[in-house]
Amino acid sequence: MQRAVQKARGGRNIKCISQLRTDTHGICVAYRPLFAHHGVQRFRRHILLRQVCLDTLDARDDKLCDGWMRQAGRDDRLELGDEPVDAIGREIEAEELDRDQPILVRIVRAKNRAESAGANLMKDSKWTKHVGRCSTHSFRLQRKLLSGRQFIVTWKRSFPYMPSSMSGDSSVRVPVDIRRLPWVRRLAADYAYDFRQLAPFYAGDPSDHASWAAAIARMQARGAERSQIASVIAAQQRRRQAPARALEAGEQLANPRTVAIVTGQQAGLFGGPLFTLLKALTALKLADQVSHDHQVPVVAVFWIDAEDHDWNEVRSCTVFDDTLAPRTVSLPPDGAADGAPVAAVRLTDAVVAALDDLERVLPATEFRPSLVAALRHAYAPGTGMAAAFGCWLEAVLGDRGLVVFDSSDPVAKPLASGIFVRELSMPGRTTSLARAAGADLVACGYHAQVQTAADGPALFRLVGHDLERINGRRRAIQQQDGHFLIDGAHHEPARLVDEAGHRPEGFSPNVLLRPLVQDTLFPTICYVAGPSELAYLGQLRDVYAHFGVSMPLMYPRASATLLDSAGLRFLTKYGLPIEAIGRQDDAALNELVAKQIPPEIEASLADAGRAIDAGMARAIEMMPSLDPTLEGAARTTLGRMQHDLQTLHGKMIQAAKKRNETLKRQFVRVQALAFPGGHAQERAIGFVSFLNQYGPALVERLEDELPLDIGQHWIVTV
Question: Could you give the strand order of the β-sheet that contains 259-265, starting from the edge strand earlier in sequence?
């Protein structure tokens, strides 16, 4: 590959695709330690030029060593460098090139009569126009094919970031290996990079094509009645006046061939944190990808966890103000009755005050008026909290085909009554299976996300509910002396089992049983999970088997930090890893400032330190010959001198800080943007903050360009 690059730079043609293939194979072997150093352990599609050749040109081992077109009009998007690999970067220096100067290997294409499957590409062929540089660190070739779509190949450098241009000139994304991030636990890291260690706990490897095919086959063979859940979805969508695209997607659920990619979250105020949007977008992108790869109808479903009763977790939304300070807008803490599901909460005039606060706090942008107007429409007094969340999510993503499901809907409960009946008939079995799996995870060096001490049913009783709407309190069902105990009152097991079968709307699953209910209602082949969800779902494989429900694949949601171009330039200029600025101390800033101190000053201090150490070492060695008691005094003197030298170095850094106020200001700004209050941005800041900043283009760019790669956190500029 390097020889091919050198020939391209020298203007010489490459005659054989087999040469590219051979050279690239050599790169794989020669640079394996480099790849391992940068965290590239799996050579998946789209990483190396070898795959571009194999996926696009069927290189045949005949006498001519020519490349042959396998399929006319192929429209795959193939990229080189979605992992930190700088092999090409060593050959191509971006600063040597003009933006549109041709670089790298040109790709041949068939012309005229040769444009058909099986045609010899080397005969009667011509070059693509050129390969142009899209940014300081990325290079792109783009060519329209017969189908009218575009074939894109991108080369990227590593610096230590590798910004790669998105389809728009102003967008850049930078991959960060999640194993570098201190908040990512070992289970999530191994799930992405060493799945075989966790294979016993999950239904299949989501990076394996065969796992998807098997999941689809299992779900289509289930033969469950689909019209009922499709009817429930349609009724909910009509109440929320969902967009036409969402209605069409909901109707597809009645098709026995349709499968679902499901994700979900609590009904956070004004849509919740950024990761809620990322989960929904991951589900949508994954549904499109699976549908394309397996030629099957796939629907993305967002499950609103509307029966969650932690009001404090959903009643607030934090956004950036015009100084990048995090500002929290909240509904009153007494907005929900004790133990009441979020779905039971009806918004009062307090939501008007919260929206007024939000409008004051959000920076003035061209998007703020329409954004706040849409929020006022969704979050109107008298609307249920879960219904408002669903309406808002559909306003943002419904026209992209997202199906939103309110899990508190009493009409849907009969479809899961069998789960409730079995749980009450064998109380404690679910919790014991989850606890055993948790112990196995711990024995393997991981953590158990869900700790189950009691052996009661994994169900809540909705006390004081009615059939018209969810308005009861969510109470745990305990087991005691052969009876069920709810709010201190005893209930006969047989009676409660019968009630679960005939009036299931009075029951609500807990965290262990909710996935089983979800995957009974929907033809789920995959659940898009956050890191914590991924961990507790690893405790449920035997629970799925116990209920006879097919466990879906688990796909980690996209993870991202949104920065402006100034923030990314700062990180790139100084080579700062994103995780370094997450520490809420001065260590990273001091280290950065120290690098700006003239080398000769640092060298002089280092020389002084070595001279002091050497001179005092001789003195300490000689002191006992004069007076043994003086050795200790000499060592104390050395300690003071070293301390004074360190103090001088600290003062030097403080002086450098004063001289580098701009650097310090930039550091603090990027830190505030990426880690508001010391927390990861995607977990702390509501996505409405970014919609206010970027407008609808935010969703469009993230949907089109945020990769589905497992194991990467993405720094994104829009």
Answer: 403-406, 298-304, 259-265, 524-529, 553-556
The pair of three-digit structure tokens given for residue 574, joined into one six-digit string: 């100084």
Domain ranges of the chain: 2-169, 600-663
Q: Counting every residue, how long is the chain?
A: 718
Long-range Cβ contact pairs of 463-469 (< 8 A, separation 24 or more): 463/487, 465/410, 465/505, 465/506, 467/410, 467/505, 469/344, 469/384, 469/410
> What distance in Å separates the CA atoms of residue 189 and residue 534, rounded to the nearest whole number?
11
pLDDT of 668-685, one tens digit each? 999 999 999 999 999 999
**DSSP for residue 148:** S
State the Cα–Cα distance between residues 305 and 287, nearest whole angstrom.
21
Angle ∠(52,58,62) on CA atoms, nearest 5: 130
Confidence (pTM): 0.73
Nearest C-alpha neighbor of 409 from the set 216, 232, 672, 262: 232
**Alpha-carbon distance 388 to 378, whole Å?**
5
State pLDDT tens for residues 183-218: 999 999 999 999 999 999 999 999 999 999 999 999
CA distances in angstroms from 213 to 77, 205, 220, 291, 540, listed in the order given: 22, 11, 11, 11, 22
Position of tokens 């239904």? 203
- Counting Cα atoms < 13 Å in the Cβ hemisphere of 582 gives 12
Q: Tokens 């403080």 correspond to what residue?
A: 654
Q: Which helix (H) or strand (E) holds 206?
A: none
DSSP-derived 3-state class of residue 461 = strand
